[in-house]
Design a protein that fits this description.
This protein has about 170 residues and is mainly alpha-helical. The chain has helices at about 5-10, 15-80, 85-105, 120-130, 140-160, 160-174. Helix content is about 80%, strand content about 0%.
């Protein structure tokens, strides 16, 4: 196959600069997607830690409130005529029952640690590369992309691979 003059001729400086800028843009978009993935990982890990912390602390508060209620009830039983002690015992029991109820609701669902699969990371990175709000200058498009990015972050943090696929497929149709 013979080369044409246009293929043999060296590219103009503007064309060379454009090629270089496009390569730089591609590298920056990849780096942005990687950083977005790292940020999503940190948000998800922090969220998992927070849920575990609240679970553990909530259980401890329930135990503490139960002990306080028992102490207040014992104090009230030794002072049957003291209205203040009786009211304190009733208040302490109400608080203990309330925190116990909340702790029991939470008890069956001990929070788990966050761990994304390599496929989930790849999928999230692909979504971030395609929809990141920083990749557009149009105000309406940026707002739409911010909503999609929020959805993608939530899906990643909850491990919802199907939602990430839906977002990616919706992008492919547009």
């Amino acid at each position: 196959m013979a080369l044409t003059k246009a293929e043999i001729r060296p590219a103009k400086p503007e064309e060379q600069e454009l090629v270089r800028k496009r390569e730089e843009q591609t590298a920056l978009e990849t780096e942005l997607a990687d950083r977005e993935l790292r940020a999503a990982n940190l948000r998800a890990e922090l969220g998992a830690f927070e849920r575990r912390y609240l679970h553990e602390v909530g259980m401890r508060y329930a135990q503490l409130d139960e002990l306080k209620a028992q102490i207040a009830e014992r104090a009230a039983s030794t002072q049957p005529g003291a209205d203040r002690a009786q009211q304190a015992a009733r208040d302490a029991r109400l608080r203990a029952d309330e925190t116990k109820f909340v702790a029991q609701e939470d008890e069956g669902s001990a929070p788990r640690s966050f761990k994304a699969s390599p496929e989930m990371k790849r999928l999230y990175r692909e979504v971030a590369k395609r929809i990141h709000p920083d990749l557009t200058s149009d105000r309406d498009d940026r707002a739409r992309r911010q909503l999609l990015m929020t959805e993608a972050n939530k899906a990643y943090e909850t491990g919802d691979e199907s939602q990430l696929n839906k977002i990616l497929n919706a992008l492919a149709r547009n």
